[in-house]
Design goal:
- The complex is a heterotrimer of chains A (232), B (270) and C (253).
- Chain A contains 9 helices and no strands.
- Chain A has 232 residues and is an all-alpha fold.
- Chain A has one domain: Arp2/3 complex 21 kDa subunit ARPC3 (Orthogonal Bundle).
- The relative contact order of chain A is 0.12.
- Among the domains of chain B are: 128 residues, Rossmann fold (3-Layer(aba) Sandwich); 32 residues, no CATH class.
- Chain B is built from 11 helices and 10 strands.
- A 6-stranded mixed sheet of chain B has the order 6-7-8-3-9-10, sandwiched between helices. A 4-stranded antiparallel sheet of chain B has the order 2-1-4-5, with helices on one face.
- Chain C is mainly alpha-helical and 253 residues long.
- Chain C has 2 domains: 118 residues, no CATH class; 103 residues, no CATH class.
- Chain C is 72% helix and 4% strand.
- Chain C has a two-stranded antiparallel sheet with strand order 1-2.
- Chain C starts with 10 loop residues before the first helix and ends in an 8-residue tail after the last helix.
- The chains are: A mainly alpha (232), B alpha/beta (270), C mainly alpha (253).
- At the A-C interface, helix 1, helix 2, helix 3, helix 4 and helix 7 of A face helix 2, helix 4, helix 5, helix 7 and helix 8 of C.
Chain lengths: 232, 270, 253
């Protein structure tokens, strides 16, 4: 560190250290693996057939939206669809596995598996509560999911990635840091700004797709508990 | 009604594969043309130049007075309708009539005109009775007709059909054939890409045989079917009746009646 | 689709997949556990890069880790060196902004940490076929059904990309505008997403029937890896599809 004129007694003030990074990484990763392996035992073969397609939808959708040059991701539509159509646990597994697969291409995505799991879990839970029966509940479910996802991912951004996401939304991080916020606060506020639009659209598009399902697909999902609470 | 012209069109994919080599041809308004050739012959690549989905690497494609390079695909859609092979690649509405109305709405037609065009297209494809059903709840053969109707409703002077008979049984092929005849009678230009040589013989007056990115044969049915040697190279088999006529050394025929007449005449001569 | 895997004859490729995974996580734990800023950089340069050279993937290794690192590094250095309210050692002033030493150091620590984490995992991913990695995991108790899901997904993503680009063509041919204002492009979303999702869900029907038959067949033969085993052959075939895995799969539209 000779190139930098740094006071030797300097301590990074309470924002983070690499030990925190290790704790965050280990906790989130172990949690994700335990959840994925734990929920996986109970699915039917048709759920196992559905999950790969849902994950592929996540991946391809992210790219399709990118090709339209829209400032959103929509890369969890498949996860939300499985959560709503099959149930919260299947949604959770879809989110977790999607993240593992995405990590095969970009390993730094791996720590965020728990966030993806939570999105599937919440989508299934809201559907179970009947929130997908009426159109006006769907955006609210999307917003709540976005807030929870933002709060969950901010410690990862803060402790492992020192506060940034490596994308355009880092401009918000810069603004909040300039205003004197801590790293964790800036990362959280960034998520609270950038996630809601994406999750809102994701949930609404998932709703519109479910409404447009032909009856032969509706019949397939009608055995699941969530299906009785779907829009007619 | 408008003519089509390809002027020394060459096309090379980004992968480096050259699919079209200096192709020049014109199609007059109202013609029914078949593009035939084996996989990789360039027939689909050529068809995708007609509505701007692909732009020539060199040369130009004229749709009437429009150069395809100067118009977006969405704009060219007003002149050239393109029915894709798999209806699953386009269906997203909840009812057949909404699906069919999507194209004409995109073209900016007034609601009354859209309604009229949708009704005509549903009639032409005999789908009026299922207009309110979900397209995906129909049998595959009918779903294919939904895709056809959704392009016919755009009222384009030119219609491109990509493999219109795949996945159809004999009855389905006959139904598609009747639709094509109805569209021809309306004076629209039809370009059919097909492996189904019998279908092309029945419904297209002009055949263009492609191979290796070049036009190998181009002319009326009788001229093209007479070149068995070239057709053989391209793995295109002439229709069954043509092959039968050739084996019997009778004049070329691809419909039962003329073949029977020729057969009778040859019997009498003996 | 074989993700990042690079096929080479090398001793690193020969290692058991779980050994490599253990090395990767071991390096990460060591780097982060010591709590010294420059340790990750040293481990990256003196352990990971030589290992990647031994595995004959040094080129892709360095390129991919830098490609992953770059956006983070830019954000970190710009944001944390300019806006670091906790710091007070000013290195330079740029008009109203000032570069603070603590911020630069913080950005450096984050950058090398991300470089090391990405690099450690990349080493395993570049030198281990996903099919073998999953087989190794399944042998240690990872549920075979989940391995099936991962392998199947890798197989269908290229097909679905193809489907997506055909859908874009088909809908543009019906007059759908995909260029123009934000509103115009946003309106194109549903006509593109709809056929992609509906068509894929309809495929589930066939796939689940095939899967049921598959599981029954293998239960009858009492095979230890009912799902992942036979798909490794398919995994090898996926090599052919590697070209489609990244890059320009969508036409410029």
């Amino acid at each position: 560190m000779r190139g930098l004129a740094v006071d030797q007694n300097f301590q990074v003030p309470s924002v983070t250290s690499s030990t925190n990074a290790l704790v965050a990484l280990a906790g989130y990763l172990l949690g994700a693996i335990l959840i994925i392996v734990g929920v996986a035992r109970q699915f039917t073969t048709s759920t196992y057939a559905l999950i790969p397609i849902a994950i592929a939808i996540n991946i391809v959708m992210g790219q399709l939206v990118g090709s339209l040059g829209l400032p959103i991701y929509l890369d969890s539509i498949g996860t939300v669809l499985v959560g709503v159509l099959v149930g919260p646990l299947a949604g959770a597994a879809t989110g977790g596995l999607a993240n593992i697969i995405w990590s095969l291409f970009n390993p730094v995505a791996m720590p965020f598996a728990v966030v993806a799991i939570m999105i599937g879990l919440l989508a299934g839970t809201f559907a179970g509560l009947g929130w997908f029966k009426r159109f006006y509940f769907v955006p609210i479910a999307g917003l709540i999911t976005a807030v929870i996802a933002a709060i969950m991912s901010s410690p990862l951004s803060a402790f492992i990635f020192n506060g940034v996401t490596g994308s355009g939304t880092d401009a918000f991080v810069a603004a909040f840091r300039a205003a004197g916020n801590s790293i964790l606060a800036a990362a959280t506020l960034q998520g609270l700004i950038s996630d809601p639009l994406d999750k809102l659209l994701t949930f609404m598009i998932a709703y519109l797709i479910i409404v447009a399902l032909p009856s032969r697909l509706r019949a397939r999902f009608s055995q699941s508990a969530a299906a009785s609470k779907l829009p007619q | 009604m408008i003519p089509l012209a390809l002027e020394e069109v060459s096309f090379t994919y980004p992968s480096g594969v050259t699919a079209l080599r200096e192709i020049s041809l014109t199609v007059a308004p109202g013609e029914s043309v078949a593009l035939i050739g084996q996989n990789g012959s360039g027939k689909t690549t050529l068809a995708r130049h007609l509505n701007g989905l692909l732009q020539p690497s060199s040369g130009r494609v004229m749709i009437g007075d429009w150069d395809t390079r100067q118009h977006t695909v969405a704009k060219l859609a007003a002149r050239v309708g393109y029915v894709f092979q798999h209806p699953e690649h386009q269906i997203f509405k909840r009812s057949v009539q909404d699906e069919v109305a999507f194209g004409p709405r995109n073209l900016g037609f007034a609601p009354a005109r859209v309604a009229q065009l949708v009704e005509q297209a549903l009639q032409a494809t005999q789908l009026s009775t299922v207009a309110d059903q979900h397209p995906h709840d129909l049998l595959p053969a009918l779903r294919k007709r939904v895709a056809l109707a959704s392009v016919l409703a755009m009222d384009t002077p030119v219609v491109v059909l990509d493999e219109p008979t795949t996945g159809q049984d004999a009855q389905g092929v006959r139904a598609i054939g009747e639709i094509v005849e109805r569209v021809r009678a309306g004076g629209r230009t039809i370009i059919t890409i097909s492996h189904d040589i019998d279908f092309c013989a029945d419904h297209c007056s002009r055949l263009i045989v492609l191979g290796g990115g070049r036009v190998l044969l181009d002319g009326p049915r009788e001229t093209v079917f007479a070149h068995g040697d070239i057709l053989e190279q391209t793995a295109v088999e002439p229709p069954q009746l043509v092959r039968l006529a050739q084996r019997l050394r009778l004049p070329l025929a691809w419909e039962p009646q003329p073949l029977l007449a020729a057969l009778e005449q040859s019997q009498r001569q003996r | 689709m074989i993700a990042l895997y690079q096929h080479r004859p090398s001793p690193v490729h020969q290692l058991h997949p779980l050994t490599k995974l253990a090395i990767s996580f071991g390096v990460i734990v060591l780097a982060l556990g010591l709590g010294v800023d420059w340790v990750p950089l040293v481990l990256y340069l003196l352990v990971l890069v030589p290992l990647s050279a031994l595995a004959r993937v040094a080129g892709p290794f360095v390129r991919t880790s830098l490609r992953i690192l770059l956006p983070f590094a830019i954000s970190l250095f710009v944001i944390q060196s300019l806006f670091f309210p906790e710091g007070n050692t000013i290195l330079a002033r740029l008009g109203p902004l000032s570069i603070k030493a603590e911020g630069v150091r913080f950005a450096f620590a984050g950058t090398v940490r991300i470089l090391l984490m990405a690099g450690a995992l990349l080493l395993t991913l570049l030198t281990t076929h996903p099919g073998l990695l999953l087989t190794g995991l399944v042998q240690k108790g990872f549920p075979p059904a989940l391995a099936y899901v991962i392998v199947t997904t890798l197989q269908i993503v290229p097909q679905m990309r193809e489907r997506a680009s055909t859908i874009i063509d088909a809908q543009r041919a019906r007059g759908l505008e995909t260029q123009g204002s934000l509103l115009v492009r946003a309106r194109a979303l549903l006509p593109l997403i709809g056929p992609l999702v509906l068509g894929s869900l309809l495929d589930v029907e066939e796939r689940s029937l095939a899967l049921e038959a598959h599981v029954q067949r293998h239960n009858a033969q009492d095979q230890p890896l009912p799902s992942a085993g036979p798909h490794l052959g398919a995994g090898a075939q996926m090599v052919d599809c590697a070209g489609h895995a990244r890059g320009d799969w969508l036409p410029a539209c």
